[in-house]
């Protein structure tokens, strides 16, 4: 008989149907079976995220040899946005260059407080600002391509905290099978508890506009060696392997990038 399990986020609950706890006799194959999701009349975003905060992830692919000029231009743009932040209701959370993965690439994470209404307002204001338009025009000389995603933060992830010192970040991005976002959230609401011990969890997001059914988990480490040791320690914790086993069938594609903060990134 199937039972119904529920995991509670701070303000909302979401659930899935399960066959019950696994015994030692359960095979690895049985762990990979995807459990059915119960129908719901609420949107996935309302069930998984409990804040009226929208994150904008800008991905910029820079022309080889143009990185210095590009970063100078973007730093000026950040300064201009800082001057206007009272009217724009947005702020830069993080700015990174890719060190391992898609090279000649930069990622910028902005936070808008007040929902999509504030994003509409900011775009209207900026696209009538000659200085901003001038910086955008100059930046086009340094870019090969760019992409924008609007994201929501998973409610069960720790609150984003700015880091100091010398750190690297790892962004692990997943493209999920359509219809599996709630199942992902159910598993990671439990799995994140295995990854809180070393303050490595920086942010967890899922896409709202852009490439859909995308998830981004961002981790912070002191070094690649610290990353290795922290991840190996997680595998020694009872229950972590089960969480991973349940999420594997939900994934269509995944990749990771190692990131380094820019000099003007609020988090270091």
TrEMBL record:
GO terms for biological process: mitophagy. InterPro entries: Dimeric_a/b-barrel, NIPSNAP, NipSnap_domain. One of its GO terms (cellular component) is mitochondrion. Residues 55-148, 169-266 form the NIPSNAP domain. It comes from the Eukaryota. Belongs to the NipSnap family. This is NIPSNAP domain-containing protein. It comes from Glossina brevipalpis.
């Amino acid at each position: 008989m199937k039972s119904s399990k529920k995991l509670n986020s701070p303000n909302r609950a979401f659930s899935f149907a399960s066959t019950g706890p696994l015994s030692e006799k359960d095979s690895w194959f049985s762990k990979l079976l995807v459990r059915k999701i119960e129908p719901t009349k609420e949107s996935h975003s309302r069930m998984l995220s409990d804040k009226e905060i929208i994150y904008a992830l800008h991905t910029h692919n820079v022309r080889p040899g143009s990185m210095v000029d590009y970063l100078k231009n973007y730093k000026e743009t950040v300064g201009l946005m800082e001057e206007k932040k009272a009217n724009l209701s947005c702020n830069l959370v993080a700015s990174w260059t890719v060190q391992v993965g898609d090279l000649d690439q930069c990622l910028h994470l902005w936070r808008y407080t007040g929902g999509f209404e504030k994003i509409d307002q900011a775009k209207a204001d900026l696209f009538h600002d000659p200085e901003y338009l001038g910086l955008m025009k100059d930046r086009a000389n340094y870019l090969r391509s760019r992409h924008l995603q609007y994201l929501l933060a998973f409610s069960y992830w720790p609150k984003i905290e700015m880091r100091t010192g010398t750190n690297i970040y790892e962004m692990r991005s997943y493209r999920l099978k359509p219809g599996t976002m709630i199942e992902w959230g159910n598993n990671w609401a439990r799995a994140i508890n295995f990854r809180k011990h070393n303050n490595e969890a920086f942010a967890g997001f899922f896409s709202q506009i852009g490439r859909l059914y995308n998830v981004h988990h961002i981790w912070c480490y002191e070094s690649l060696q610290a990353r290795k040791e922290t991840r190996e320690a997680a595998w020694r914790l009872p229950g972590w392997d089960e969480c991973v086993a349940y999420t594997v069938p939900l994934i269509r594609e995944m990749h990771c990038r190692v990131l380094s903060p820019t000099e003007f990134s609020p988090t270091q």
